[in-house]
Design brief:
6-stranded antiparallel β-sheet; globular
Length: 178
């Protein structure tokens, strides 16, 4: 298998691993303050209240488009897309995966681009894998840079009763891990 095929396989595996990780935490991508002490997250000081989004809560498609637009504005190149969620989770997860890790300048540009699109940073995590948590409406976003598959990954999940129940059902059908 050549380098390109191998890279595509790793990227596809990364997308599946990210989505599996989302399901492993019940899909809620809990705000870092709710994850418990000693988890490495540093909560951002509470800023001005983020105004409600114009046009109401965005759809999964709108959030996916925002993630792609913010990444493009930061000069990031997309990698292999994750398999699309189907069924009741289809409207609960939006993601974007880069073609590798991003340098500090592009990460800062990504964060700025997301903030310009209405996302608010809520927490940060440093080593071993840098991550940022953001929120916008009922959506919670985390982006991580590096890690096991050494790529930039953005995963947004929608909170609310319907999605939280869908994540619980999906986790229950996955069976025990071990």
């Amino acid at each position: 298998m050549g380098r390109t095929s191998s890279g595509a396989a790793w990227a596809a595996a990364a997308g599946v691993a990210v989505l599996a990780g989302v399901l492993a935490v019940g899909g809620a991508l809990l705000a870092p303050a709710e994850e418990g002490a000693g988890d490495g997250w540093i909560r951002e000081p509470a800023g001005a209240k983020v105004p409600a989004r114009a046009g109401g809560d965005p759809s999964r498609g709108a959030v996916a488009a925002e993630l792609a637009a913010a990444a493009a504005a930061a000069g990031l190149t997309p990698g292999v897309a994750s398999p699309a969620e189907e069924g009741e989770l289809a409207d609960c997860i939006a993601d974007w995966t880069g073609d590798g890790p991003a340098d500090d300048g592009r990460l800062a540009a990504l964060e700025t681009a997301l903030e310009q699109r209405g996302w608010q940073v809520t927490a940060r995590q440093g080593d071993p894998v840098p991550a940022v948590a953001l929120t916008s409406g009922s959506w919670r976003l985390r982006f991580t840079n590096g890690g096991l598959v050494d790529t930039l990954s953005l995963v947004a999940t929608r909170s609310g009763r319907a999605c939280e129940e869908a994540f619980r059902r999906a986790e229950a059908t996955r069976g025990p891990r071990g």
